[in-house]
Amino acid sequence: MSKPTILAMFREYFIDVIIIIVILSVFGSVGYAFFSLPETNQLENLKLIEATQVFDIHNKLIGKLFEENRIVITINNVAPNVINAIVANEDVRFYQHYGIDFIGIARAMVVNIRRGEISEGGSTITQQLAKNLFLTQERTIIRKIKEILLALKIERKFSKEEILQAYLNQVYFGEGAYGIEAASQLYFGKHANELSLAESALLAGLPRGPNIYSPYIDLQAALKRRAVVLSGMQNAGFINSEQEKTANAEPIVLAGKRRRAVQASYFLDYIAKELVGRYGANRVYKGGLKIYTTLDLSIQKAAENVLGDYQGAILSIDPRNGYVLAMVGGNDYQKSQINRVVAQIRQPGSAFKPFLYAVAINEGLTAASIIVDEPIDIGGYKPQNYDKKYLGPITINKALRLSVNVAAVKLAQQIGMGKVIDLAKQMGITTLVPEDNNLAAALGGLTQGVNLLELATAYTGFANSGIVSKPITILKVVDETGIILEQSKIQQYRILSSEVAYIVSDMLAGVLKNGTGTAGNIGRPAAGKTGTTDNYVSAWFVGYTPEILTGIYVGNDDHSPVGLSGSQVAGMWGKMMAESTKNMPITDFPVPANVITRVQICTDTGKSAIIGCKESEYSSFIKGTEPHRQLLNIREPWFRLPGLF
Q1: Which SS3 state, helix, strand or coil, does residue 450 take?
Q2: Nearest in space to 587 (alpha carbons), one of 539, 525, 519, 637
Q3: Is 350 known to be catalytic?
């Protein structure tokens, strides 16, 4: 026997070395994969990312906050046909294997070889769950080994029902829907336990190619895929041939694809920002929280409808507790997500005047105090009325009702504009600066302006008997296990006496009855104030009933003239408030015990109206400050009757 050549020896040892390297690589890969698996405690619960649900004050679903639109349900709330269809389509031996289906793997290899491409994966439902919950989507041998090891581990820890439940809640069905419940609602507008056999088969066919088989994308492809799933169900013994035939003949009736609802979108963004600040983005968008809010969907709808194509914002608050009932931050959320309720700072115009008149009443003036409306020049400042006309002596009640500018400036000069600015700040307006301590501010000509949220909040002090109610949007936050994480508390503070607040409201009621806001008269007790800025750049109306305070501003983002006055916005306010209050009992503002109401006053003298008074109005007074009724002087020329004296 000849000695082996050096070349032969090299070949022999080379092959041995290669085999050893391959063996070590395989075992090394398995070892690496094993020791880099997720921690055991991560497998204690098959926890899924679930959308946070947001409800209105009547527990109606407003919308959801999510990165993955998912509603987690138990397997008991899934139609049996769905379960059978998923098993037949994804893993027909699911109930027989222990996480790995070697028969399925062999079958997939044969199919792939025959087709010359990888069209079958052979992964079990458990493997798919392991990959999607705990691993990345990378295509590597290490990831595949991890997937297999995790599948075996999951099968040891959980029952088949638990695994299937997790899978049904986790899998992606297309169109942004994760999990069977979200998919059922998206495609068919029903719950997962209400699906028919045909509907179940269609949904079961989606995970293999959600962008290919979605009936919203290609209805014919969806029908063909449904037929494949039904055939698999029949072959697996889940249904008979007659059921298969009937289901294949059933037409697809879709719920209708919807874009993100405009309804309360600005409100959802507003509360999401609050919640993320407290709980973090992961908890808010992936934690399955339930958020119970103050929003009233019926009032929200009325607000959205009335703004129409105008750019601007609307905010409704219950002045008694600060609950935000409606929030509209613009006319089209899809085009602009800027929430103009908080983000836009605008000149308020005459909507700022109630703070001036509140200080006047608080300083001892009455609704019947007289101001002379006449041309003035205060150090070069020459304010003018809207119509360039002057009314002469008028009560401050009439001056506010008709929004007389010169009278407001003279009143501010008399009582001190600094006091007005201080009151507005105390009532919640934070955008005021020292430079606003000037007479032009009496007409709403502020250095920066105000936003709607703060102006409406400040008005709650007038509507709520002198007590400012801070806005509240979230009533309660509940986690995915039902534990209450937080509950709101009403935050209020008194700024004005109930007497002063009532008298201001009584004067503002005249704005709607026979003043600048008559277009907003809704035939029930209400009060409010118009505001129009120079060149019609912005227009306002902030008004209230005892139950609802609503502020509306209309103004273009580029500050070009909007072409509306506060009187016209009052009409929008009236339309919305009439709809919002139509089912509410009519109530009036509570009258403080120390206030006397409906005293008839002559508007050019401020005294009790008597025969011959050219114009009168009804005013309210703190008891003891009302004008005393005068005795008639029958010798006055205007009182003489023919044939007498």
Answers
A1: strand
A2: 525
A3: yes
Among the listed residues 90, 155, 454, 499, the single catalytic one is 90
Asked about 50 being catalytic, the answer comes back as no
CA distance 191 to 457: 41
Q: How far is CA 310 from CA 28, 330, 345, 514, 531, in A?
A: 67, 8, 17, 26, 16
Locate 21 and state its tokens.
Answer: 């390297």
pLDDT, one tens digit per residue, over 584-598 is 999 999 999 999 999
Closest CA to 574 of 511, 519, 509, 506: 519
As given in the structure block, the two tokens for residue 539 are: 């227009």
Q: How many residues make up the chain in this entry?
A: 645
- Domains of the chain as residue ranges with CATH: 68-249 (1.10.3810.10), 316-474+492-581 (3.40.710.10), 595-639 (no CATH)
Report the interhelical angle of 219-235 vs 241-249 (nearest 10°): 170
For residues 560 and 538, give the distance between their C-alpha atoms in angstroms, rounded to a whole number.
Answer: 9
Q: What is the dihedral of CA 391, 394, 398, 400, to 10 degrees?
A: 90
Joined together, the tokens standing for residue 51 give 């959308």
Whole-model pTM: value is 0.74
Summarised one tens digit per residue, pLDDT across range 423-441 is 999 999 999 999 999 999 9
Check 123, 265, 316, 350 and give the catalytic one: 350
Read off the pLDDT band of 99 (50, 70, 90). Answer: confident
% of the chain residues with pLDDT over 70? 84
